[in-house]
Design goal:
The chain is α+β, with helices and mostly antiparallel strands and 163 residues long. A 7-stranded antiparallel sheet has the order 1-7-6-5-4-3-2. The radius of gyration is 16 Å and the shape is globular. The protein starts with a strand and ends with a helix.
C-alpha cells in the first residue's frame, strides 16, 4: 500500500525566514532543542545541509520503537524552497514501511510577512497492519515539527524586534 499525506500551516513569518530553518541543518537543531524528551542526538554523516546531506537522528531513552534513523536530504532547492528527505535506515523502516519520504516547502503568503508551510509524507507500506499503526503517530510528529519551526522563527523575529 502506498500513499501521501499533506498538511499546511499558515504562519506570520516570511517564507525566506522559514526557509532559513527548513532548508539547513538548523532544522534538526530546532527539533533537538524543542523535543529533548523525544530526540537525544543528531550526527551529520555527510554534507552541510544541502542536497546529499546524510544525518542520523537518535531518539531519547524511553521513546517506544526504533532507537534511531538515517535520512538523506535528496533535494534542497533554495530557489523553490523545496526539500525532499528520504529515510534510508532505521525509524519507520523497521515498523512496516518500505519507503518513507518527507517534503517541506515554504510558500509566500498573500499577506505581507506571512507564508504557507507545507509538509508531505510519501510512503509505501510493506506491512500494512503495523505500518498503519505507526503512520498516525508519524504524521502527528511531523506536524509538531512544522509548528516548532514556525514558533522558533517567530520568536527569533520578536527577539530581533525588541533588541
Amino acid at each position: 500500500m502506498e500513499g501521501s499525506i499533506s498538511m499546511k500551516l499558515e504562519v506570520n513569518a516570511s517564507a525566506s525566514e522559514i526557509w532559513k530553518a527548513y532548508g539547513s541543518l538548523q532544522l534538526p537543531k530546532i527539533i533537538m532543542d524543542t523535543f529533548p524528551d523525544k530526540y537525544s542526538e543528531l550526527k551529520v554523516l555527510k554534507g552541510d545541509g544541502h542536497s546529499g546531506t546524510v544525518v542520523e537522528v537518535y531518539f531519547a531513552p524511553g521513546v517506544p520503537g526504533p532507537t534511531w534513523y538515517r535520512e538523506e536530504y535528496v533535494v534542497v532547492d533554495d530557489v523553490k524552497r523545496y526539500k525532499l528527505a528520504k529515510m534510508l535506515k532505521g525509524g519507520v523502516l523497521e515498523q512496516g514501511f518500505k519507503s518513507y519520504e518527507t517534503i517541506l516547502t515554504a510558500i509566500e503568503g498573500e499577506k505581507s510577512n506571512t507564508c504557507i508551510m507545507t509538509g508531505t509524507v510519501d510512503y509505501v507500506l510493506d506491512d500494512i497492519d503495523s505500518g498503519l499503526q505507526v503512520l498516525s503517530g508519524a504524521i502527528g510528529a511531523f506536524y509538531q515539527i512544522m509548528k516548532a519551526v514556525a514558533d522558533y522563527v517567530i520568536k527569533q523575529q520578536e527577539d530581533t524586534t525588541t533588541n
